[in-house]
Amino acid sequence: MPRLHAAALALVASAAATAAHVRTPKVPLAARARAPRAAPRLAHARVARAAAFAHFDTDGDGFISARELGAAFERLDQPLTVGELAARMRSADLDADARISLDEFEALCAREERADGGEADYGFEPSGYYGADVGDPATPTNGFRSAAENFKRELAALRRATRHGEGGSDGASRTARGALASWARPLFAPVDERLEGLGLLPVLEEERSVKPRLASLRLRDELDRLQLSNEAISRAEKTRIANRRALTQQFGGQASPLREVRELASQETPWFVMLPYQALCLFLDAVFDGRPLARFWFLETVARVPYFVFTTMLHLYETLGWWRGEQLVKQLHFAQESNELHHLLIMEALGGDARWSDRFLARHAALLYFGALCALFFASPALSYNFSELLESHAVDTYGEFLRTNKQALSALPAPKVARDYYNLERGSFLRRAMRTSDRPEAVPPPYPVVTLYDVFANIAADEGAHVSTMRSCQDSADDIRPLAASFGNAGSAQGWDEYDGGD
């Protein structure tokens, strides 16, 4: 029996390394205990500004000339007019010597950050209504009006993408110039211009966009250099599946001393569920090859759908009198959707939704996914949770490979404000606790304090691992699925989190 127990432990560790939060990078407890202090943040800002200056100073003479400044904007599809370039130089060149020194550059960056509330970001704005909640009314307008307004926005965005290229006029970086324009522009741009000339289409106005700050240009260029290998993700998935099959073969027909082994060994995915999942993976590999942030934005858009479906179907079952179970399950799914929404907002802050074609695909895929998953839940709730587990496991594999491949680059980039607010300010919030179902301390890692982009993706990977565990628990009708926030009354505060985490 000890030998069997040891083998089970080894297999669980191997499986968890690819299918759960254990795969996320380890952070020292001392670093996890509290949010970053102001002094390290200021030092990090100075280092970031110096790196941005070196990025512009291409000839290495210690100054940024007008030619170098204009070339930097050109590289990221943000060309400046002669007047705009002259205005940028005047605002930074304090001693009027027709060049920008490091001190002048730092002073300009500081002024820009103060104008934006002291925040250094990547200069992206959320597209559409995702994240555009500031200033929006609490209640939307009627459906007909909302649909008409959205159609006008989407038609204008489609016409811009066709005539100017994706990223040409909407402020996206050069990698956002998409395949749409490469084949559609020769075909449809002349037609669009002709219809506009005949008055059948309104005059296409340039989308109003604010040129990014100087520091944001360097950050965007660094984002463009991030890499993700489809082959590496496939290898990670194959390892996870092989580990699961090994568990099934060893423990599928006998009682295991570990709950994790019982869960993994008993939940084999049928072929008709694996088939659409594999088709989705092939689609992601083909459409988002070389564009990891756009891939993540698509994944997070789709990842919200299951929790809408589960809440909808549970309400339907209750309304029809078919079933009424633990009400905290709906609370659990609401908390999971909130977590995925914040992942989505983070990807928008990094420009993941820059292409119109990506937004079009993601939103329509989410709509189709909603209907298909509702039907699958109706036929088998366990299989719908199983399919969601597959997608969340794929997300863990994807984020894990992204962290390993880009560790050095991510560690040198700052975290966007939305990520710092979510993980640092809401680290003990009710909803972040409520999305987890296990009371084992190792299954509830506290969020890592966020300073760099590496910290951000480490937290996201840990969140996705928690979703995997929850989806696995929901497939077992014998499990007592109870959110942690329901079991720990003081968990909704930072003090409650610290008490549960050991009082540090």
UniProtKB/TrEMBL annotation:
InterPro entries: AOX, AOX_sf, EF-hand-dom_pair, EF_Hand_1_Ca_BS, EF_hand_dom. Residues 51-79 form the EF-hand domain. GO terms for cellular component: membrane; mitochondrion. It is found in: Membrane. GO terms for molecular function: alternative oxidase activity; calcium ion binding. Coiled coil: none annotated. Residues 1-19 form the signal peptide. Its cofactor is Fe cation. CDD domains: EFh. Keywords: Calcium, Electron transport, Iron, Membrane, Metal-binding, Oxidoreductase, Respiratory chain, Signal, Transmembrane, Transmembrane helix, Transport. GO terms for biological process: alternative respiration. Belongs to the alternative oxidase family. This is EF-hand domain-containing protein.
